[in-house]
Structure formats: C-alpha cells, structure tokens
Amino acid sequence: MRKNKSGLTAAILSISLLTVMAGAAVAPALGAIREHFAGCKPMTLQLIVSLPALFIIVTTFLFRPLCRLMRTRTLALAGLALYVVAGAGAFMVKDIAVLLALRALLGVSVGMVMPLSTGLLAYYFPSEEQSRLMGLSAAMNQMGGVVATLLAGVLASVQWNYAFLVYLAGLLAVVLVAVWLPSERLVAGGGFKVSSLLRFHPSVTAMLLTMLIFFVYPTNFALTARQAGLGPMATTLIMVGLDLVAFFVGLAFGWLMKNAMRWMKYLSPLLFMAGYAVLAWVPGVSGMLAGSALIGLANGVGVPYVNTIASIKGGRDAAVTVMPLISAALYLGQFVSPLVVTPIADACGCSPYAVAAAVAVVFLLQAFLTRHHHALPPEA
C-alpha cells in the first residue's frame, strides 16, 4: 500500500506548502492592486485575500462525496491542476469581477486538497510520529508563505498582476503527488456529521479563533505599513519575517510538544495578545517588527497544535472526519476576520489590532475552559 516513506511524506508536505498561498500570498500586493482598482471599496479589495476561504469552506463540506468519486491521487491532482489554472490565471485578468471569480475557483481547489494535507499524515503514520509531522506540515505551510510572499512582493513591484504568477508553484506538487501518492480510497468511517462537530468542537473552535485573529495581520498590515511610509519591499520583508518565525517554530514543534505539552494550549492566545497589543500601541518600525514576530510565534504554535490534537483524536479516519471540519474552521476564520474585525474597529474608533488583542483574550478563555478536551491519550 505504501510507497517510499520519504517520497510519500514529501508528496503530502508539498500540498501543505501551497495551502497558505490561497489568500495570504498576494497580501503584499494589495497596495499595488488598490492603486490599479482605485474605484473599488477597501472591503472589495480585502476579498481578494479572503474570498478563497469562503469557497474552501463550501468545498470541504463536499469532501467526503469527492472521496467516494475519486481516489486520493486523482482527487489531489484534480485539485492541484485547478489551483494552478485559477491562481496563475489571474495574471491575465483586468476586470475585478473576473479576478474575484478566479479567486473563488482557487478556493474550490484548496478545499479539494486541504484535508489531505493533514489527514493523510494521520492515515499513513502512527500517532507517535504525528506531532513531528504536523510541525513539519505547518513549517512547510509557512515556508510556502515565505517564498510566495517574497515573490509576490517582488513581482508586484513590476506590475500588480505579476504577483499571481506565484501560483505556478503548484506544478511542483503536481509532480510529487503523481509520483509518490498512492491511489486508494480513504476509509470513510465516521464521515462528516454533526456528531463529529460535537466530538471535536474544542479543536474546531480553536482553529476558528486562531485564524480569525491571525488574519487581521495579512488583511491590514500592508495598508498600515504604507500609511506609515514603508515601501513595498520593506513591507514584504517584515511579512516574510513573520512567516520565517512561524517556519522555525514548526520545525521545533515536535520538541515543544514533548517538553511543554501541558502549556502549549495557552501559548498561542498569549502570544497573539502580546503581538497585537504591540502593533496597536507601540509606534514606529520597532513596534511593527516586534508585533510581527510575536504573531509569527503565535501562528507557528497554534496551527500545528490544533492539527496534532485533532488528528490523534480522529485516528486513521481523521482525513474524512475531523480534518474537513478543521479545514472549514481555518478558512471560515480567514473569511470572517475582516467582516467582523473591521466593523467592530470602526464602531469603537480603534485599531483592528486592538480588536484582535481582545479576541485573543476570548481565545485564552476558550483554551482554559476546554483544557480537559485537549488532553491526549497516554499512548500519544
């Protein structure tokens, strides 16, 4: 059933490398895109980053039927092909409506492969390896963000639409999946049911809050930096720095889970609180750098922690039970973030970062109230 273990791992992790790029990769280009579409409302431009998330959510609810229709390799290749076409296809678009339509199709493509990027780790590997592998998955996700954000920023400095060429990176995953991913049907044990949501609600809620808080950063930082007088390259480098911090945390995540597992559930909300407080109330470049680093740490801990807990509790069927729920929560948080945080900030007359810090307090309370639900079985 299994091919070369290293090749299989590389194929699965290559999908993780791409999923973060669905929305955040073009965030550094928002300033240039805003100049090109000068007549559009700011909320419309923010949809360029957040709209894929809505369609990822819808597609994850269809993930189990898709698994019935297609074997894993076919499903992954179909999703990756659509990813490349819809993502890079925006390079040729001049109309905002067509651009948003392609962003929606990009969301469909990620919804097809996102549960595989973590669920297959639970399917093919034992629970004792999953903390390390989920950390690697998160690290690859962040490395994808580093490369894509840097390239998008550089390409956007040439012309706004060049930023979308970063999605051609999906061709690498197409090759790895075609060569190494087995072609088989996933075990569809519990399926996508309300009972699964009730069983896994602490992890689902934690992922929702993680992304709702984190996505305040990519949807606001480029515009904030421009208002502070920073150029596109400086803005891009700071955002890349955040992804690099999260990348190194992902590499160290297995060690952190072994040595500080009792406190891991609280670390992400505490770091989010500190990071957004710094961005909201510490002026200048120093505040931007420190706040970005803290938010990178928070995201680097939070995502693999939730995925690890959920995958171990979900067992071998995690890809068709809990991981679609986690994927839906992840992208629901991304989608609703600007729709919730921006109006609250406007109504209160405060920075979106201050609202994010307040939501992080709610996240900390959720982590404390569900601490028993996050406990792993002794053998894990």
**CATH topology grouping:** Growth Hormone, Chain: A
Give the class-level CATH name: Mainly Alpha
Structural class: mainly alpha
Number of strands: 0
Number of helices: 15
- N-to-C series of helices and strands: HHHHHHHHHHHHHHH
Q: Which term fits the overall shape?
A: globular
Radius of gyration: 19 Å
User: Whole-Å distance between the termini?
Assistant: 24 Å
Overall pLDDT confidence: 84
Structural domains: how many: 1
Uncertain spans, ≥5 residues at pLDDT below 50? Answer: none
Major pleated sheet? none
Q: What is the share of helical residues? A: over 70%
- Content of β-strand: under 5%
CATH architecture: Up-down Bundle
Looking at CATH, the homologous superfamily is: MFS general substrate transporter like domains
Protein described:
With 380 residues, this protein is an all-alpha fold. The chain has a single domain, classed as Growth Hormone, Chain: A (Up-down Bundle), CATH 1.20.1250.20. It contains 15 helices and no strands. The chain has helices spanning 5-19, 30-36, 42-60, 63-69, 72-89, 96-124, 130-158, 170-180, 194-214, 216-227, 232-251, 253-281, 284-314, 322-348, 352-369. Helix 7 (130-158) crosses helix 13. The chain is globular. The chain starts with a helix and ends in an 11-residue tail after the last helix. The mean pLDDT is 84.
